[in-house]
Amino acid sequence: MKLNNIQLKNFRNYENLNLTFHPNLNIFLGQNAQGKTNILEAIYFLALTRSHRTSHDKELIAWNAHEMKVSATVEKSHTSVPLEVELTAKGRTAKANHLKENRLADYIGQLNLIMFAPENLELIKGAPSVRRRFLDMEIGQIRPVYLYDSVRYNRTLKERNSYLKFEKSKIDKNFLSVLDTQLVEHGTKIMQERSRFIEKLENYAQKVHTQLTHSLEKLTIHYKQNVQKDFLLELENSHEKDIFRHQTSIGPHRDDLEFFVNDINVADFGSQGQQRTVALSIKLAEIDLIFDETGEYPILLLDDVMSELDNSRQLDLIETALGKTQTFITTTTLDHLKNLPENLSIFEVEAGHIKKAD
């Protein structure tokens, strides 16, 4: 899978931009706050119809503009697909092959990607919501039906939580049971897909981590599933507690992940170096996992992370990615980038203007 080009209209600090990419490696070089990360964010937005940096769509629209658009052409093994995502006052519109997709699940997966950024350490040591979002984004790319079940589950969860805020005397247990059944229907599918994904991710990540640590460490991933055995029964048994707390206490919306190195919880007791290596292992593992699931290698976005890695980790990252994935790197300097191939494109970025280096 390759991204041939991208066109931005009123995206962040780019009023109009048209770039053609190298099929192998693309480096965006410039000082901070010039617009390098905005390019990677635009690619991410095109793939997943949302930003990895903000949940407020208005922040993506250029100053004094009222709408924005990101479009590109994705080259796959057997076809070329034009993609377009537009934000207007009426909302979000996504098109694949010039056809409007009414459901997110029908659009996601047209462009698969892996994003590696400094904030990825939050995957290891951040809040559980960060890890649940990671699961939703990654599984959604390779199993679009997962997004459909997630949307239905979250809609029902919101309705149940709103109902739990009623006065206790006004709550009908029979209606609560109807909502329970709907939660179980979609929540069970979510948990099954998460369990399947985590098992495969652990298998790939263990191999990568063993290589990165020269067989000195073993990585394991634990799926902390909130539901223990019987989802429906546990929901029914939690009625009184949920009514008292005005929120749903049982379900995959409370799942979490734990990462262990040599049986030690990395978030609690691991060094920053170990946490960084685990995060890198997971991201590198996803390259082959996504290929295994879809038959296409994803594109790889590396946002200002090369300076965070020592030379050996940089080499591991580049050797694993190049030859498989089309890679996009943002950096303030080329000094710390070692062993780069000659076959690449370097773009110089300054104050929202981009030119290709000679």
Topology:
Blueprint: E1 2-11, E2 14-20, E3 25-29, H1 36-48, E4 68-75, E5 80-88, E6 91-96, E7 99-100, H2 104-107, E8 113-116, H3 122-125, H4 128-142, H5 144-164, H6 173-212, E9 219-224, H7 231-237, H8 239-245, E10 256-261, E11 264-265, H9 266-269, H10 272-294, E12 299-303, H11 311-321, E13 327-331, E14 345-350, E15 353-356
Helix pairs in contact: 4-5, 5-6, 6-7, 6-10, 10-11
In words, what does this structure look like?
By secondary structure, this protein is α/β, with parallel strands linked by helices. The protein folds into 2 domains: 1-112 and 296-358, P-loop containing nucleotide triphosphate hydrolases (Rossmann fold, 3-Layer(aba) Sandwich), CATH 3.40.50.300; 125-204 and 211-270, Glutathione S-transferase Yfyf (Class Pi), Chain A, domain 2 (Up-down Bundle). 42% of the residues lie in helices and 24% in strands. It is built from 11 helices and 15 strands. The chain has helices at 36-48, 104-107, 122-125, 128-142, 144-164, 173-212, 231-237, 239-245, 266-269, 272-294, 311-321; strands spanning 2-11, 14-20, 25-29, 68-75, 80-88, 91-96, 99-100, 113-116, 219-224, 256-261, 264-265, 299-303, 327-331, 345-350, 353-356. The strands form 3 sheets. The protein has a 6-stranded antiparallel β-sheet, with helices on one face. The protein has a 6-stranded mixed β-sheet with strand order 8-12-13-3-14-15, sandwiched between helices. A hairpin with a 4-residue loop joins β4 and β5 (80-88). α5 (144-164) packs across α6, α6 packs across α7 (231-237) and α10 packs parallel to α11. The radius of gyration is 22 Å and the shape is globular. The chain starts with a strand and ends with a strand. The model has no long low-confidence stretch (mean pLDDT 92). Belongs to the RecF family. This is DNA replication and repair protein RecF.
